[in-house]
Batch of 2 targets.
Target 1
Amino acid sequence: MKRISLTQYLVEEQRLHNSIPAELRLLIEVVARACKTISHAVSKGALGEVLGSAGSENVQGEVQKKLDVLSNEMLLEANEWGGHLAAMASEEMETIHPIPNRYPKGEYLLLFDPLDGSSNIDVNVSIGTIFSVLKAPEGMSEPTEEAFLQPGAKQVAAGYAVYGPQTVLVLTTGDGVNGFTLDREMGSWVLTHRDMEIPADTKEYAINASNARHWYPPVKRYVDELLAGKTGPRGKDFNTRWIASMVADVHRILTRGGIFMYPADAREPEKPGKLRLMYEANPMSFIVEQAGGAATNGKQRILDIQPKKLHERVAVFLGSKNEVERVTGYHNE
Ligand code: AHG
Ligand code: MN
Ligand code: MN
């Protein structure tokens, strides 16, 4: 197999499509390097004393794990000095993180969920990192929170790393989706998943069914029809998968199809779902659409949503196109 490294891929993409200028390439390489560091810490587990709680809470009132805090610091540190960023924002930080004055500033904004799937850290199940890249509005010298409040359609790049049996980085810059496997001995990312595509149809769905009693009618109707199987209205059997790490569920869907759902429900009607628009839903929706899938909040395309605040939450239906369209149709009937 001819090995193509992440660097070579990025350089050649720029030549072909003019879509990855040097600053953006640096950004992606620096994020990928930070993911390598996080992957290393994750794989050490108890030996690296990285398991367990950090004894603090984040802005959403969730208990932070040591790895949530560590990964956040690794991403901040890696990305501060390169001169490619104007500011960063993270699921784990209440306010935005401007680039310190001792470093030059660039035109990009970086957002991340440093460690996705926190409940899986201590039980040795796949977890990941999700990131999203925007451009700072023109003429802005000191970026504020408002600079980040752009619809997902404005992203110039998005990706995730999944720390599973293999560590894989999946990336889009708006021209398809490609996956790179970390070669630990060589310390490099190697292109292993070219032009990832999500099949339009599927027999697999992912939803946390313990919330079923709180679901709104369109979700209940859709899942009931899946559960009815061969003799029901869908005329085929479906299978459930729920990993509780969005990264791992989305990675499965990119590999063999499926639909992932985290709906809003009647528990807290004022709360539109659990997942975060800026750090989870937007980057994953960009990737999924670029792989031929679809992503909605039940009513509209996620990438069209105008964010109102940094830590905004959103309902998520994403994956195989025909299934996402069906459940979205039930909401709009
Ligand atoms: P995080 O660990 O970054 O807070 O995200 C966890 C998210 C997502 O990865 C996953 O799909 C979902 O929460 C799982 O939620 P439940 O525990 O409600 O199943
Ligand atoms: Mn997450
Ligand atoms: Mn997280």
Target 2
Amino acid sequence: MKIRELFDEKIVFSFEVFPPKKTSSIDVIYKTLDELGDLKPDFISVTFGAGGSGNSRFALDIASKINESGIIPMLHLPCINFTAEEIDSALLEAKQRGIENILALRGDINPDIPPVERFRHASDLITYIKGRGEFDIAGACYPEGHPDSDSLDEDIENLKKKVDAGADHLITQLFFDNEYFYNFREKAAKAGINVPIEAGIMPVVNKNQIERMVTTCGASLPRKFVKIMQKYEHNPEALRDAGIAYAVNQMIDLAASEADGIHLYTMNNAYVARKISEAVSGVIGV
Ligand code: FAD
């Protein structure tokens, strides 16, 4: 089933997983998928490293497994380091395995890997996939602007190109302050972007994640969020509970403000996904 059809019916609630590290067995993620599947998300997306990093080669296998379990899969497909032939082969394999939903991405530019240049932007990949007519296509968007853009307005102008190229719906980068999402949504609507936008929410539930957030993620960290993280960083259980509660609060506010959907960055943590799903089931009808 194509994901775009779901938005007419409800607030779409989806999960994101990533392939396990090279040193881990793929069975670990299969167990996680069973647990996530029990929570009945509308779809589960699988990340794919732009530079072929980690265990990206497993992304298609994981998406197939999701499909076999009766949940709709979405395959992320970053294009910056791929030739048209490599994209063709990934799309063919996806089609053969019954995967109809693709999140078309540029991918981060790795200074050590010269870009292939066939697809410079996600919009180039979207045009290419759209030409084949078989897939539902999602695109990424950035409530605080993409770091490569000089301003949010410039990024939204470029996002419009992505939508005009054929993106059926969008998923946002994570954010911790819903006001950025509401401001972005308003600006996007004014720019003529009228496809559904899912809000990306990441529960921050351990110390490693906090450190990564501070150093690599472009998202602003509101005072309330920083205070909670500082207070509980040395108490793993309290930090986990506080991170879950923070994400739940964000989601309830988003649902009340009529977000089209919520995409949960699960970090492959089925326990956290379950706690959150249980807490929001009434408001978003999981
Ligand atoms: P683009 O849409 O190409 O945008 C990149 C920059 O170029 C922006 O500044 C934009 O304003 C500008 N731009 C866009 N189109 C044009 C145009 N036509 N002309 C001129 N300028 C333009 N990365 C992975 O490697 N694997 C993943 O699985 C993955 N999953 C992700 C999932 C989500 C929901 C999100 C939000 C991001 C994900 N990423 C993933 C990260 C993503 O690849 C990076 O953020 C990357 O730097 C940009 O990708 P993009 O598709 O948004 O690029």
